[in-house]
Each structure stands twice: as structure tokens, then as C-alpha cells.
Amino acid sequence: MTSPPSIRRHLAFTLYSGLVLLLMFGGLRLALLVYNHELIGATPAGDIAEAFSMACVSTCAPSFTR
Length: 66
Prior knowledge:
Layout: H1 7-35, H2 45-52, H3 57-60
């Protein structure tokens, strides 16, 4: 017999679901990079690494400065 769902299990499920989505989207981005490798040209490696990084605070978050 299983125990009833708890807050802890719900939070764990949400965390693991988010992790799986991040891994899937990262894999899709990598697949697109491989598919479009001819279009990379002279793009610096730093720009490509930034595209796969988690540090998108300044580009993804809305800006509140005027």
C-alpha cells in the first residue's frame, strides 16, 4: 500500500520535472547546434557557451531600468 501524497513528494516531483525539462531543452539546443553547424561561421566559442549557460538573468529577465 502506498502512502498518501505529501507536500514533500509534490515539491520533489516539481523539482525533478523541471530538471527533466531543462535537460530536454538543452538536448534540443545541442541537436539544433549540430544540425546548423555550417551557420556558426566565425562565432566566438564564448557566445556559443553563453547560449548553453544558465546565466541568462540579464537577457531573460525583464529589465526594470529606464
